[in-house]
């Protein structure tokens, strides 16, 4: 029984920093030319954080929907911040996959040492977070195929909220 409790406690501690309504923990990853990119340095009304892997079957399936979402919504204040989760010598597989999946408009990063795990535990891919300008988590764990619909519902909700305040 105690082992189960320890495992539950560990899982709860892993999830606590990435609950909806919390500020997403800051972390730094690196572009293909090894330039650091800090999540909290991205200035954008909405940041979509996408954790993915080149060999993830579900990532391959949903990436066309995610790319289409970005093309459709990039003029609505959306920045795509992608983090390839491959570490070590497999990090090199990220960069050709980005070109293959047509993710060139994203801020594409990776970290061979996977240091983002200190702040954000990613146990499966794809994992999508929608953040506001303060990097507060609006929604997470949404299917890539539903990203466009859910994001536009967020925009509609925000618009209604603004009109009520006026």
Structure characterization notes:
The mean pLDDT is 92. With 166 residues, the protein is an alpha/beta fold. The protein is globular and about 55 Å long. The N and C termini lie far apart (55 Å). Strand 1 and strand 2 form a beta hairpin. The protein has 4 helices and 7 strands. It has one domain (2-165): Glutaredoxin, CATH 3.40.30.10. It has a 5-stranded mixed β-sheet, with helices on one face. It has a two-stranded antiparallel sheet with strand order 1-2.
List its salient traits.
single chain; 166 residues; alpha/beta; Glutaredoxin; five-stranded mixed β-sheet; two-stranded antiparallel ribbon; 4 helices; 20% strand
Order of helices and strands: HEEEHEHEEEH
Beta strands, count: 7
By CATH, the architecture is named: 3-Layer(aba) Sandwich
The CATH homologous superfamily is termed Glutaredoxin
Query: In the CATH hierarchy, what is the class?
Result: Alpha Beta
CATH topology, anyone? Glutaredoxin
Major sheet characteristics: 5 strands, mixed
Count of discrete structural domains = 1
Query: How far apart are the first and last residues' alpha carbons, in Å?
Result: 55 Å
| Strand-pairing-aware structural class | alpha/beta
Write down the overall geometry: globular
Strand order of the largest sheet: 5-4-3-6-7
Query: What is the beta-strand fraction?
Result: 15-25%
Q: Calculate the mean pLDDT score and round it.
A: 92
Percent helix, as a range, is 25-40%
Alpha carbon gyration radius: 16 Å
Count of helical stretches:
4
Would you identify the regions where 5 or more consecutive residues have pLDDT less than 50?
none
